[in-house]
Design brief:
globular; 11 helices; mainly alpha
Length: 208
């Protein structure tokens, strides 16, 4: 997909109008992070990654009613488990809104990465992983676990004996571990997708 700078600028303007100032600042942080990682890991898809970053939280500020109405309209049934993980709702509705409001940039790669940016999924693509980890480590995140993963990732990318893919996988695995552990510590439900994502990464690492 070719994405011009003016198209990105237009997307930024639309997104700015739909998000709070803080969420928009986070979105721009994710955009900066995908550019930094994309240049090393997926140089041909940097613009497409920017699109995914700009749109990933497009429905994050919807009310539960708005999420539910949109899902109903698309005949998407949520499981009992999903309903108990409201933080995941925006990952389900964002792809629907992207297809409806931004069809010109709704590529399979963008839709997939946005759909799995919160919980992950089995066998994530490099594109999926870049958005997932950028959401976790963007420079506005000050939580110590995020800072730690950010430092580890950018240090690993400098190391000659670690491939960029290995550095990315290690960071995604660490972020999934942190998220799962924190959910367990709070006695919260852990999304099946997060477990599948983690297992798939471990298998990938064994393969080397
Ligand atoms: Fe999100
Ligand atoms: Fe986000």
């Amino acid at each position: 997909m070719t994405v011009s700078m003016s198209m990105l600028e237009r997307l930024r303007d639309v997104v700015r109008g739909r998000l709070s100032e803080a969420r928009f600042a986070h979105t721009l942080g994710v955009e900066r992070a995908v550019v930094r990682l994309g240049r090393v890991l997926l140089p041909d898809a940097v613009e497409e990654l920017r699109v995914a970053a700009l749109l990933h939280d497009i429905t994050k500020e919807y009310s539960e009613q708005e999420h539910m109405a949109l899902l109903r309209k698309h005949s998407i049934e949520l499981s009992e488990q999903d309903r108990r993980m409201p933080a995941l709702l925006h990952s389900c509705t964002a792809p629907l809104v992207i297809e409806r409001d931004f069809p010109e940039v709704a590529t399979p790669a963008v839709l997939s990465a946005v759909a799995c940016h919160t919980a992950g999924k089995a066998d994530m693509s490099v594109f999926d992983k870049i958005l997932y980890i950028s959401d976790y480590i963007e420079d506005g995140r000050t939580y110590s676990a995020c800072v730690q993963v950010r430092t580890l990732l950018f240090e690993a990318l400098e190391q000659a004996d670690v491939s960029p893919q290995e550095a990315l996988n290690a960071a995604v695995l660490r972020a999934l571990d942190n998220t799962i552990i924190s959910l367990v510590n709070r006695s919260s439900i852990v999304s099946e997708q997060a477990i599948l994502a983690r297992n798939a990464l471990l298998v990938e690492n064994f393969r080397g």
